[in-house]
Structure formats: structure tokens, C-alpha cells
Amino acid sequence: MRLRMVGAGPGPGRGRHRRPGRLRPYGRHQPPDSQPRPDAQRRLSAQPRPDSQPRLNNQPRPDTQHHLNNQPRPDTQHRLSTQPHPNADAHAHAPADTHADASRHAEEQPATPRLAAHVAFRRFWPLTRGDRRWLVLICVCVIVAALTETAAILLFSDLTDHALRQGSLSAFWSPAGQWFAVAVLGAAVGYAGNSLAVWTAERFVLRLRARVFGHVQDLPPHFFQRHRQGDLVERLTGDVEAIEQMVVSGVVGTVSALFSTVFFATAAFWLRWDLALATFVLAPLFWLAARRFSGRIKAVAREERAADGAITSVVEESLGNIVLTQAYNRKAAEEKRLRREARAWMRASVAGARMSELYEQLVEVIETVCVLAVIGLGAWEISQGRMTIGQLLAFAAFLGYLYPPIRNLGQLGLTLTAATAGAERLLDVLDAEPAVTDPAPGAAVAPWPVHGTVEFKGVSFRYPGADRPTLAGVSLTARPGEFVLITGASGAGKSTVSKLLLRFYDPAGGSVCLDGVPLDAVPLSFLRENVTLLPQETLILHDTIRENIACGRPGATDQDIERAARDAAAHDFITALPDGYDTRIDPHTARLSGGQLQRVAIARAMLRDSPVLVLDEPTTGLDALAARRVVRPLRRLMSGRTTIMITHDLNLAPDADRILVLDHGRVVETGTHRELLALGGAYARLHGSHNGTGIATSTGTGTGTDTGIGTGTGTGTGTDEAEPGRDIGREIGGCPDRRLT
Ligand SMILES: Nc1ncnc2c1ncn2[C@@H]1O[C@H](COP(=O)(O)OP(=O)(O)OP(=O)(O)O)[C@@H](O)[C@H]1O
Q1: Nearest-atom index, ligand 1, CA of 536
Q2: What is the helix, strand, coil percentage profile of the chain, to 5?
Q3: What's the pLDDT at 475?
Q4: Any one cellular component term from GO for this entry (predicted)?
Q5: At what angle do helices 624-638 and 558-567 cross, to 10 degrees?
Q6: Using a 6 Å cutoff on CB, does residue 498 contact ligand 1?
Q7: What whole-number distance in Å separates Cα of residue 84 and Cα of residue 458?
Q8: Contact of 414 with 297, CB cutoff 8 Å
Q9: Among 139, 231, 274, 414, whose Cα sits 20 to 30 Å from the Cα of 90?
Q10: Which are the contacts of 627, defined by CB distance < 8 A and separation ≥ 6?
Q11: Strand, coil or helix: what is 477?
Q12: Angstrom distance (rounded) from CA 136 to CA 367
């Protein structure tokens, strides 16, 4: 009938604690089934932590006590996996390189803010809004469960004294019936409370995770450059669950421990006030023990959480870079990296487990001292005829129930402390500010039919934390349907222009406008509906090709998708796949080449059909042949749209209405291809170096029939996928001043 929590606790390194098969030191009488349960099985309890169940394995316990609560005895509860590791000695005993690892983590990741437990609690408590009535109901169940336990123990005393001692069966029925009724009530309340508690806790986790995930998606690019992806994953999983332990389970645990303490203490005083007093004199020992151990829990919890994140990061980065690993024989180096992180985690984990066990054993010794003192006193009282055996047994039973909630109150602090390490890491994410926000409702411009005029007016920009500006006084205008090409040396600030145009950042000086409206007055979703970005890296969802194209315009029909794929010269290779448009792909897919993936992305942009297009190095990473195959679909995509193309590849430069050359964040030259070549400056040099190796020098005699754009007049029948021969000259080079529209 007791409500209890059997889930994994917020102990340090919980994520890894949950892994099946992990060895963990059991308590003396701990059976194998005391493994940490999966999270779904987490239950809130009348006691804040499972390990703090009454543990009488170290002390004489009346056998009948097994039957007093309709649940496995406390000593069968698991311990270490579900509790904070009060490893005060984590630092004292940890080898020196633990500290080295910790400082290395600190160097790699921005410093996480340090928080007090109550501050962390206050930050997350508002997330329980909407579920507080359920929390109240759970607390009512917890209180009723504690009451039924109290009643059961009193009935046990009654039964012992009136039925067992008198040897009378007739005296048995009345207390037995009452006991049974109390047990049924306790079982019903336990079931309802536990079910509700799991539901409420999981809802909290759901809500918190959605909140963090939603927030993360609004964060600016530099946040992701500064945090390792694996570590962020760990924060969204392990750390989120630790917060639940702090907030929902923490509250229920506190209520449970408080009420259980009050009920059992009242009953103990009612049974024998003098023995109860003796019991309470020793109670502060539990609190002292918890206090002694709480000091370094947070430190080791932090270490474990950080190591969890580091392991996930290494695995994720290593798998993502598998080609580099294999091609450069980095297998041993990667293994060493993982071993180093895993060892850091292992050290923190072992130190935590060791301290946890030490704390547990110390508490058991304290409990034993208390029980022995009470039994000694009780034996003396019985010998004086002032106490019955039933009373002593009931009193001992109360002790078995009383100490755990007292101990839990102390341990609750440890739980909160350990969970605070997760809270700090999560708040580090939640407190990161998005670089831009939607305009306030009153300041937002109402949606309008966008024509596609893009203007940068004296724009300056500096990345957060950067010591020098990336853009300084950049001005450019692209009228509807114009093609503006931005080029310049690597690091000149070209991609930054695209980030400002998509409003990933706001400029520090000047303004960026769409159809004359400053971007900070345009609702973000409206802006991004009307400005399509094709970034350097091809963005592919882990989904079917159909969905990958359809996400350009939610609600698009199959015909729309196919039309876009045809325009992007992707239809033929898609239909050649066994599952056609339903083929599942992912960013590392081997089924499609880089050029084919790029054409899927172009089809998506086609479907999006926005008036402004930003192409950031659209042919980067593609070989000459693949680049050529992408150019025709690109031309179709650009047709009739304002296009800002950021590129080193000057093959399309003759087509541009205007070319801007950036150097160290400044526009150093502006003009058409011809004008800039004639100028003989930076552009001419870039063009010269490009022509030295570029494909623009090819002179085409191709036979392709693509007539979507441009003036090609080939007569062949080659498809986009088929090798179009030597039409490269007409496709992408050797045709100065050819206009796209
Ligand atoms: N998040 C950031 N924080 C600080 N500096 C950054 C950040 N992102 C880029 N920079 C710096 O801004 C400058 C311009 O970067 P940007 O990516 O715009 O250059 P680019 O001209 O597009 O280069 P490339 O042609 O190599 O892609 C570089 O010096 C870069 O190091």
C-alpha cells in the first residue's frame, strides 16, 4: 500500500546508469531484480527515493513486519542506481587526471553557471502549471497511504495482544477484518497514486523537453558552433529527466516523507512516548550524515553529467566523421578519445557509487544503533511489566517505518543537489538568448505580396564574442528578379550576408530590408517563407525523398512534388530507385550522390517558390560533372526570382546583374563581370585564379536540350541525368553577359 518511487534517480551520470548490464554494487541483501527500472516505470513515492525505503536488513525486524505493507520489503529495493551519489570523496579519491579531464571539458564547453538547489527548483517549478491539481491529488494519495500504514501497524499491535497472546480465534476476526480493509484501501490508493504520479512525471518531462527543444531551435548559429552536439543531446535527454526528479518527484517525496514522519511519530508517541522520545533523540544523526555527504555530490554529479555529454559527443562526432577516421587511419586516435572520456565518466561514477555505499552503510549503522537502543529499552519495560510484546513489536515496526522518511528528508537534499547539476546544464541552454525575436505584435508589418527587393544599407556586423567586425558598411541592392553575385576571399564575410538576410542575426549598424521593410519588422516565419536559403551543405531530412521535397511547402500534392523534381532534374534518378519517391534517405545516404542530393534540395526550393533566393556556394563539394548537372536546375530555380549567390565559383558570374567583391567585411568592388574584369582589380585577380583551374574555360559543343533558361540551342536529346557531352561551355561558361531571364 505504500507509494514508492522505483525509477532511476537523478544521481550523477544517470544517463549511463540506465544502461542495461551496467555493474552496480548491490546492498548486502539486494537481490538481482533490484536493477534500475526503465524510466517508464518510474513511480513517485511516499518516499523520495527508493534507496531510502525502510532498510531493516541490518537490524532485527519482527517477521510480521513483512506483512504490514503490501509490498516487497524495503531491502529489496534497489539503491545505488537510483540515488544521488553522495560521494564527498569524489575529489579526494579521484586520481589527478580526473581534474585534468574536468578542466579539459571546461575548456571545450562554455562555462556552465552554478546554481543553488532552491534557485534551480524555482526556475523549473512554473512548468508544473496545469498539473498542480494532479500533484495535489498524488499528495492526498501519499498521505492516505501513510495513514493506512499507520493504521495497519496499530492493528498489528492489537492483533498480537488480543488474538495471538490470548490464543483466541474469535479475537482474531475483528482486527483481521479491519486490517484487510485497510490493506485494500492502501492498495487502491497506492495504485491510483503511483499511476497518477508516473503520468504526471512523464508529462513534466514531455513538457520540459518540448520547451528546451523549442528554445534550442531558436538559438543562433554561433550557439551550436560553441556547444558540442553530443553534449546538447545529453542535456535534452539525461538532464531533462534529472529535473523531473527535482521538481515533481521532489515535491511528492517531500510531502510523503513529511507526512509519514508525522503519522508514524504520532503513533509512536501514542504507543509509548518515552520510547518515542529516545528514538527522536537519535534522529538528527541521519540529518548530520546527509549533511556530511552532501558537500561534494554536486561536483561529482557535474563531472558525470559532463562526461555523459562528452561520450555522446565523441561517439556522434566519430560516426559523423567516419570517412576521415578510416581514410586517415584515425581509428586508434578516435578510440583513445572515447577511452579518455569513458574513463573520466567511470572514475566519477565509481567514486559516486563508493560514496553512496558509504553513506548507506553509515545510515544503516545509525539505524541499528537506534533500533538496539529502543529494543533494549523495550525489553527492560517488558521485564518491568510496563509494556506488552505486541506493543514492542508494533513499536519496532514503527521504527522500521519512521526512520526511512526521516532519512529521506535528509536524502532529499542530496537528491536535489545531484539534480541541480542537471538543472545548471539545462538552464545554460534555456538562458541562451535567441539572437533575434519576432517583432512585437504592434511593431510587426502585416504580410504583403513580396516582390523581392533586397537592400543592405550600410550594414555592419560583429559575431557575439568576436574581436573585430565581420561586415563593415556593406550596401547592396537587388531588385525583383535580379541576380547579384557576392564573391571574395575565404573569410571575407560572404556567408554572413546570407545569415543577415535570413535574419539569423540583426546587424549592429545599418539595416537590411525586404521590399523596403526593415527585417526586424517582418515576422520571422513570413520572412523565411519568402526568402529561401540553399546553404553550402545540402540539408537532407532523415525521411523519404518525397518528404524531403515536400517540406519546401507543407501540403504540396504529389503532382507538385513531381513537377518540382522534374524542374530540378531529379525526377529521372528518383524514379530509377526501387522505391522511387518513397526511398528513405538521410544526410549520409549512400544511395544518392552529392549532386543528386543537391538536386533534391533544389526541388525543395522550387516547391517553396519564394520570390527571394539565397544560394551559398551551391556547387561546393561537387566535382565538375556534378556541378554542371546542378547548374541547369539552378538556373530554372533562379529564373524570375531575386537571387543572391555567394560563391567562389565564378562560372555564373557573367550572368549576374551585379557582382560585389567583399574583402575583410567591406565591399571593395561592384559592377558587372565585364566592368570588373576591365577594372583589373580584386575581381580580375579572383577570376584569373579561378580560370586557371576552373571549368569556365571549357568551350562547349554540347548537345543537351535543356531550354528552360538561357539561350542554349543544342539539338541532342540527353536528359539531365545522362552525360550531356561537352555542352559545358554553353552551360556554365563562355557566354558572357547571358541573362537568366
Ligand atoms: N559564429 C561566429 N563567431 C565568430 N566569428 C565568426 C562566426 N562565424 C563566422 N565568423 C567569422 O566571420 C568571418 C566571416 O565568415 P563568413 O563565413 O561569412 O566568411 P565567408 O566569406 O563566407 O568564408 P568562406 O568563403 O570560407 O565560406 C570569418 O573570419 C569567420 O571566422
Answers
A1: 27
A2: 60, 10, 35
A3: 93
A4: plasma membrane
A5: 120
A6: no
A7: 56
A8: yes
A9: 231
A10: 595, 619, 649, 695, 732
A11: strand
A12: 32
Q: If DSSP states are collapsed to H, E and C, what string results for 443-459?
A: CCCCCCCCCCCEEEEEE
What pLDDT does residue 372 have? 82
CB 574 within 8 A of CB 562: no
Beta strands 584-585 and 471-478, pairing class: unpaired
- The interface predicted TM-score of the complex, written ipTM, equals 0.96
Strands, E assignment, 495-560: 509-514, 517-518, 531-534, 543-544
User: CB of 222 closer than 6 A to ligand 1?
Assistant: yes
Q: Record the pTM.
A: 0.63
Instruction: Please give the distance of CA 78 from its chain centroid, rounded to a whole number.
Output: 27
Contact 227 CB / ligand 1 (< 6 Å): no
Residues 6+ apart with CB under 8 A from 557: none
Nearest to 357 by CA among 88, 80, 81: 80
DSSP states along 380-436: HHHHTTSS-HHHHHHHHHHHHHHHHHHHHHHHHHHHHHHHHHHHHHHHHHHTSPPS-
DSSP state of 505: S
Q: Profile the chain (741 residues) by mean pLDDT over runs of 10 residues.
A: 35 35 27 30 33 29 31 30 32 36 43 68 84 88 87 79 68 82 90 88 86 87 80 80 78 82 81 77 74 68 76 78 71 84 84 78 81 82 81 75 73 72 84 84 86 93 88 92 91 91 92 92 90 83 88 86 88 88 78 82 88 85 68 81 89 88 92 90 83 41 34 36 36 32 27
Q: Is 544 helix (H, G, I), strand (E, B) or coil?
A: strand
Q: Select from 225, 467, 470 the residue to mutate for testing ligand 1; criterion: most ligand atoms less than 8 Å from CB.
A: 470
Check if 499 has its Cβ closer than 6 Å to any atom of ligand 1: no
CA of 492 to the centre of ligand 1 (A): 7
Best CA proximity match to 382, nearest among 189, 196, 160: 160
Task: Indicate the SS3 state at residue 651.
Answer: helix
Tell me, in angstroms, the distance from the centre of ligand 1 to residue 493's CA.
6
What are the strands, taking DSSP E only, across 208-338? none
Question: What span, in angstroms and rounded, lies between the C-alpha atoms of 601 and 568?
Answer: 9
CB 728 within 8 A of CB 695: yes
Q: Which one, of 315, 295, 296, 343, lies nearest residue 100 by Cα?
A: 343
Residue 352: closest CA among 69, 740, 81: 81
Phi, psi torsion values for 325, nearest 5 degrees: -60, -45
CB < 8 Å & 24+ apart, contacts of 579-586: 579/544, 580/545, 581/544, 581/545, 581/546, 581/549, 582/544, 582/545, 582/546, 583/544, 583/545, 584/542, 584/543, 584/544, 585/540, 585/542, 585/543, 585/544, 585/545, 585/548, 586/540, 586/541, 586/542
The one-letter code for the residue type at 380 is W
**Could you give the count of Cα atoms lying within 13 Å of 71 in the half-sphere of its Cβ?**
24
Verify whether ligand 1 is closer than 6 Å to residue 177 (CB atom): no
Q: Are 712 and 730 in contact (CB under 8 A)?
A: yes
pLDDT of residue 621: 63
Residues forming beta bridges with residue 666, ordered by sequence position: 663
Residue 304: per-residue pLDDT: 77
